């Protein structure tokens, strides 16, 4: 089978050095805000000054220079630009790293040395994403994104921060492997085989067929598939609380559901006009959940329980899906739409996720559920209880990424667990249709970094909290 021939290769393990002129590297990639910030890097500074004197626009974008002080003679400088504008965020750092490493690869570098210069803006602003540990991690993750290719892997001793970045990248790698691959290479059956190789203790994995009684809507979608493309329901569970004695009140009970449609044909409502071209990416929600479990597998956080059943008190429910084109029309490319029910809204779940993602360059916008979203799925017909798709108004679907959340709440029975009920349940939905990455191109793995930033990194290192 195709999956049997696939090679499971770990992400590149970074090599750490304090020697800027080490012979082990064949290029230096400098990520910096301004030329003046690089004055402490003596072997590079003269070259940078000379370039800035002949190019008035040198302090922007990416440049390749010949630096005779380096053994490789190759210097790539990638500028973040000034970071003190209202519109600036962590993406300035991650994108500069991605562009810099990509440029190094283009000029033939196989062992680039990533160098993050001091960010002078950090001294006068108190943005959480400019804290040294956060910006360093963001820079490493940006570099890893550029290095996601099937290529030679090398290994070495790594420091804490780079090791942490590698673990996060391993989760992103799993999400990209699954989410970006075609529906043959990553059919439902092949995804199960892939996960069985990737996920080990303490993650528990159970593979189930699509049970019509338990998953009626999934069964409707699955009924037209031939045997080779039959759907699977994968249950994953992680319980870090068993590793040590922890106060039960400190344990976060997280319940994740990821949409994993390997190729969305649209069913009987055909996707015409070329819309089906990217539908193998409709599994990116499930791919992100799988990638998050890969990180749990590696870092083993103790204060987190990620469960497959609502058998614990106060669970946090989260669905992740490449759901609607409307979220892109509403917020633009690269942004996730977050929608909370009442109990989650009261806890500030949407703002917590938004802040957590912003630290590492995953950007989210917050939408609000309104009564019109519930009304859009009501029906007066005697033949049906609920409309699964809101009716068009003037040929267009209004509130197109909010109302599907209302449908999921009603269809799942969560409407019996709202604010005014005996057992309210906090439920958040993330629509990643516009933030899962370009196609063709490399998937982003969103919202893996958001989940890691909120639930894992605070236990691993000093990590910023949202200021309320």
From TrEMBL:
GO CC annotations on file: cytoplasm
Stored Gene3D superfamilies: Zn peptidases
Residue ranges of domain Cytosol aminopeptidase in the record: 175-310
GO BP terms in the entry: proteolysis
Pfam families: Peptidase_M17
SUPFAM superfamilies, alphabetized: Zn-dependent exopeptidases (SSF53187)
InterPro entries in the record: Leucine_aapep/pepB (IPR011356), Peptidase_M17_C (IPR000819)
Keywords noted in UniProt: Aminopeptidase, Hydrolase, Protease
Family affiliation: Belongs to the peptidase M17 family.
Protein name: Leucyl aminopeptidase
Source species: Schistosoma bovis
